[in-house]
Amino acid sequence: MKIAIAQLNFLxxxxxxxxxxxxxxxxxxxxxxTLDLVVFPELALCGxxxxxxxxxxGFYKRCERALSHIAENIGKTAIIVGYPxxxxxxxxxxxxxxxxxKIIADYAKQELPNFTVFDEKRYFTPGVKPCVFxxxxxxxxxxxxxxxxxxxxxxxxxxxxxxxxxxxxxSPYDRRQIAKRESILKQRVDETHLPIIYCNLIGGxxxxxxxxxxxxxxxxxxxxxxxxxxxxxxMIVQIEMHDEKAVIQPKKILxxxxxxxxxxxxxxxxxxxxxxxxxxxxxxxGLSGGIDSALMLAIAADAIGHDKVTAxxxxxxxxxxxxxxxxxxxxxxxxxxxxxxxxxxxxDQFLQxxxxxxxxxxxxxxxxxxxxxxxxxxxxxxxNKLGKMVLTTGNKSEMSVxxxxxxxxxxxxxxxxxDVPKMLVYKLARYRNTLGAVIPERVxxxxxxxxxxxxxxxxxxxxxxxxxxxxxxxxxxxxxxPTQIIxxxxxKKMVDDVVRMINMNEYKxxxxxxxxxxxxxxxxxxxxxxxxxxxxRREK
Length: 540
What we know:
The protein contains 16 helices and 19 strands. It is an alpha/beta fold. The strands form four sheets. It has a seven-stranded mixed beta sheet with strand order 5-4-3-2-1-14-15, with helices on one face. Strands 6-7-8-9-12-13 form a six-stranded mixed beta sheet, covered by helices on one side. The longest helix has 22 residues, at 365-386. The radius of gyration is 26 Å and the shape is elongated.
């Protein structure tokens, strides 16, 4: 038997468009290969995750019509496709085997994830029955994503006679997910000695990025085939029966990417799909000459094409000449259009206007924030005029402690690197330079500075970033208490100051644009803390 794994990029809510894509790809794959089955990812018909679209009654009527349209237009080819179903007032996350113009078999997902970014129990009712069907004498058990992370569903399918497991999935990337997927698949194979075909989704959806990497694991728990990461791919799987066991014909396996490459490709895909799926013609970036905006410019140019990116360089009296030079170099090296606008005349006008109210009070962070807000205003004006979306440049370290200005450098439509801590920013910059040097070495090595006042560096207000990132990881990603962090050897005052900054800036993060998720404690769906709270202010 030959099975095609169609690892495709679907648009959430575009039911008719997704249906046409399923028909087109099924017919294309069938015309190019002699095969028995084409497999599409979880909820391919409506895209994943559809979120509260699932509460709209018309959503299911469209899905029902689209399924019928698919069945009528795929010829003799059998397909497995994921879709939502409303039945008797209950909603199900389902997969169907379609052939000869009708649904031959269907399956409702049993294990509904309700953690980190997942809230399927908000919508769906769990299924209770296995689904095992036969094609070419091979009995196939059908599962959906989270089912594989539990022992019961696959055991149930095995007890119903399954000789091979096909799982359709929408598994988003995080820094540990690729290794965890393989570990879980191997665990299920070790328990059942059944080979598993794992079809994953590809593409960016708001803050989530689905990285693909559809996988086949044989009955001995070995990776024997794997689709590409970070792009659409069709993987043909050849299966033969020997002594009543399904045997997968192995193919050459690609080496795993380095972590830096994984993250860079995740950021690229997330930026590409967020911009184009939302029909923006391109991106705008405030380019400062610092490391964060340099990395963001490279990601944007690589993701959507240098000709669709515009950079705005906005120096002030506090901007070092080398910052301007480096920003111009970066834009020129990447072939990005750039404009230089001094903000000093605008700042002077603001200060003159406010002088009667400020009444000669000493300068403080107010004047610094005015500079950031002038830059944000210029970027948003250009965004309105050109239609391009502003990509903000703040990293996770800054967002964690509030080292960012509301309506200033936080102004924009997408915060692509908001889950990238500062030390990882440096690693990604060095990785990008291995593909072609576009970020000057001194941008990577110089002391980071916001350049909002004379002789300013980030470390005037923050701990060194290597120490700060370690504290942030413990407190935010591992949920360690401050006393645990201090007992691990960190300075008490430093820990207390960092924790205080994290907790008091929740209101800022809630107003920030969404950004790409790289960890299981990204700001957004993963980490939801109350803004108004008496607990965290007394945390010890």
